[in-house]
Amino acid sequence: GNIPQAYRDYIWHDITGHTSYKETTVSAIADGSLFDLPYGKLRGALGVEARWMKINDVPSEEMQNGNIYNFSSSGITRGKDNVKEIFGELEAPLLAGLPGVEELTLNLSGRYTDYDSYGSNTTYKLGLNYVPVLSRAGAEWTGARGHVQHTLLQRRHTLVDSVVYACGSLVMTD
User: Rounded CA gap, 10 and 120, in Å?
Assistant: First the structure.
């Protein structure tokens, strides 16, 4: 059909909103080895962070009034918030290089967060990382040792156009 230009001008025009957002972040982190344990070094990290955030989001008049088909209406969003945080983490190797255990590591972490807008809260995590030993080469083996993918990538920088024959138990080759 032939749509009159006046109608096209009425329904088809640029719709522009304006958003400004500013965030300033200051942080400091210290990490490193704390002391030796029987199976490796106890490592730790401690940090602080502060953030100052400000937003002024003004959608177009059409969006504010809900006049755009298939879009929800949007109001003006203005505000600011500030947050202060302190956090820490410890990583302790519990076992390593034993039959059935390549690595068993304990991870403890926590964070205290204080927002001006809603208050404070704490979050934490307690985790264990276990890497099993699936097989070991016998003493007579003279070839490469280690994880197959690492050994291959040391010799070739890519596995594109490679054929890899993997043998071993299903847990190793699947």
Answer: 50
In angstroms, rounded to a whole number, what is the distance separating the alpha carbons of residues 86 and 110?
Answer: 9
Q: In this structure, are residues 40 and 34 in contact, taking their beta carbons and an 8 Å threshold?
A: no
The rounded distance, in Å, linking the Cα atoms of 18 and 75 is: 12
Q: Which long-range contacts (CB under 8 A, 24 or more apart) does 65-72 make?
A: 68/15
Q: State the Cα–Cα distance between residues 11 and 4, nearest whole angstrom.
A: 11
In whole angstroms, give the CA distance from residue 134 to residue 67.
63
pTM of the model: 0.64
The amino acid that residue 149 corresponds to is: Q
Longest dimension (CA), the chain: 88
Q: Which of 15, 29, 13, 127 is nearest to 71 (CA)?
A: 15
83-138 confidence digits (pLDDT tens):
999 999 999 999 998 888 889 999 999 999 999 999 999 999 999 999 887 666 77
Alpha helix (H) ranges present in the chain?
Answer: 5-11, 61-64, 148-155, 170-173
Residue 143 burial (10 A CB sphere; 0-12, 13-18, 19+): exposed
Token output for 142? 């003279």
